[in-house]
Specification:
With about 500 residues, this protein is an alpha/beta fold. It folds into three domains: about 130 residues, no CATH class; about 140 residues, no CATH class; about 210 residues, Restriction Endonuclease, CATH 3.40.91. It is about 55% helix and about 10% strand. The strands form four sheets. A five-stranded mixed β-sheet has the order 5-8-9-10-11, with helices on both faces. Strands 1-4 form a two-stranded antiparallel sheet. α12 links the parallel β2 and β3. This is NERD domain-containing protein. It comes from Novosphingobium mangrovi (ex Huang et al. 2023).
């Protein structure tokens, strides 16, 4: 495989690293935020007004371009990588090499279904640009009363100030790929050190990033899927941590939202339980706002000695009850991308199967009349696990393994398989769940869920199912908390002296 990689390596070695990262910045800003591209970075298709897809411009290829620039570009000297001809040639070489690595994979016939899943993890996230609603979702998690003190202890600023900082970074990133911290001179003295400390936490020199990339690089079927250290350190410098460049602003935003999970998990052993409770509360707020007068909501109940707990949420309308179990559960990079004799994705699905088993255990008790706050009334009951992170639950690889592992959970816990037959389960992400609730509000819980779990649609991605059967449900749901950042913008701050 390395012999096939060498032409790309040699091509990239002719370019200057910093101009290459500047090019990835402009492509990222164009793809994710619709900013105009400099003319010299447009290929003929883009000049003719064709779509990014028809022009061959994809987020995952731009990210891989940034990785290869860091790995092979010249820190000093080299030709500028600032024209569409060179940039698109590099991305074309990357695309062909990815195809080649798959073609050389001896077990591709056995792994083709897994390959479809990891393509989803690689490419689908780039189709959902960051929005105020997404930022608000993270803000609501981190500002939960049990989580907010952990944020302040770890970063030296309140959750509100942290998200104000994210907005200030984003504002600077609109104008140029370098961060000048223009807001800092006017900020209170007490916040300056925490801001710079956070910047240093997520930045590395180009030499350090190159070394980290060399360590993670894989010259086999996983070449295009190995972890990009830029996701951990989205700010790059030439040796001065106070003079940084951001070649991929969407990755910076992801690091300062989703990526904080790892910082806080390492800092406080209680974070896992706290963020789980925060997610449960967020799901409740989503249902309250979308459901309004349509749904009746019943939150988790606790009773008995030893204490027993119900499902996290029950959503009821005229047609059915939806039993919702909330799981923050995330996938590590290996689970998302690695092809191996024992793919890590299967171990991750096993954890998810445990969540499904837990859901059916409490569902059985509820249907037997054991819940103090809900009794069966003959209406259908639909069990669902809602995850915070995207698992891209679709296709035969995912469902073949999940169904098999759920059956093992039934055997382990002595559960009646009739439950599974009468009440088929669903799994979706919180973003999809918001769209699902929007669809159910317009139709009904039973009509939407019954169609989704039917043989024709069960293995479909929920997002795709909703787009096809309930157009507008996902896009309308994206605005659920579009005003959620207003409190951040208008809140007290040492950054803006309000």
């Amino acid at each position: 495989m390395y012999a096939f990689y060498k032409p790309l390596r040699n091509f990239m070695r002719g370019f200057n690293l910093w101009s290459g990262l500047g090019a990835t910045y402009y492509y990222m800003q164009h793809l994710q935020f619709g900013q105009a591209l400099p003319e010299q970075l447009k290929n003929d298709a883009l000049r003719r007004g064709q779509s990014n897809i028809k022009a061959g411009l994809y987020g995952h290829l731009v990210e891989l371009l940034a990785r290869e620039v860091i790995l092979n570009g010249q820190v000093r000297g080299g030709r500028p990588l600032n024209t569409a001809g060179d940039a698109f040639k590099a991305m074309s070489m990357i695309h062909r090499l990815d195809d080649k690595s798959w073609g050389l994979h001896g077990s591709r016939s056995e792994d083709i279904i897994l390959q479809l899943s990891r393509i989803a993890f690689q490419q689908f996230p780039w189709q959902s640009p960051p929005t105020n609603g997404v930022l608000a979702r993270y803000h609501m998690l981190y500002s939960h009363p049990s989580v907010a003190p952990m944020v302040e202890a770890e970063f030296g600023m309140s959750t509100g100030e942290l998200f104000q900082l994210i907005l200030l970074f984003a504002e600077e990133m609109v104008r140029r790929p370098t961060l000048a911290f223009e807001f800092l001179p006017a900020a209170e003295e007490s916040i300056r050190a925490p801001v710079l400390a956070l910047s240093e936490r997520i930045s590395r020199s180009s030499d350090e990033l190159r070394a980290a990339t060399v360590e993670r690089q894989s010259y086999d079927v996983n070449w295009a899927y190995s972890f990009n250290p830029l996701r951990a350190y989205p700010l790059v410098h030439a040796g001065n941590p106070r003079s940084v460049m951001c070649p991929a602003p969407p990755i910076l935003l992801q690091r300062l939202t989703d990526g904080l999970y790892f910082d806080l998990m390492r800092a406080d052993r209680g974070f896992g339980n706290a963020i789980g409770k925060a997610f449960e509360r967020y799901v409740g707020k989503v249902m309250e706002r979308i459901g309004k007068d349509t749904f009746e909501l019943r939150e988790e109940a606790c009773w008995g000695k030893p204490e027993r707990r119900s499902v996290d949420w029950i959503v009821i309308d005229q047609s059915a009850a939806l039993f919702v179990e909330c799981k923050l559960g995330r996938l590590d990079i290996a689970s998302q991308t690695e092809i191996a004799p024992e793919p890590p994705f299967i171990a991750a699905i096993e954890r998810l199967a445990g969540n499904v088993g837990q859901l059916y255990t409490t569902l059985g008790e509820a249907l037997a009349g054991g819940y103090p706050h809900w009794k069966p009334d003959g209406r259908p009951v639909h069990p669902m696990v809602v995850t915070f992170h995207e698992w891209f639950c679709f296709g035969p690889f995912f469902y073949k393994h999940l169904d098999k592992l759920v059956e093992a959970e039934f055997e382990k816990h002595g559960l009646d398989r009739v439950l599974l037959e009468r009440h088929p389960y669903s799994v979706c992400s919180i973003a999809e769940f918001e769209g699902l609730l929007t669809a159910c509000r317009g139709a009904s819980i039973d009509s939407v869920l019954s169609e989704k779990i039917s043989p024709d649609h069960r293995q479909s991605l929920l997002r795709g199912f909703l787009a096809d059967r309930y157009p507008g449900a996902i896009s309308n749901a994206m605005g659920t908390f579009e005003d959620g950042m207003d409190l951040v913008i208008d809140g007290p701050s040492r950054l803006t002296r309000k």
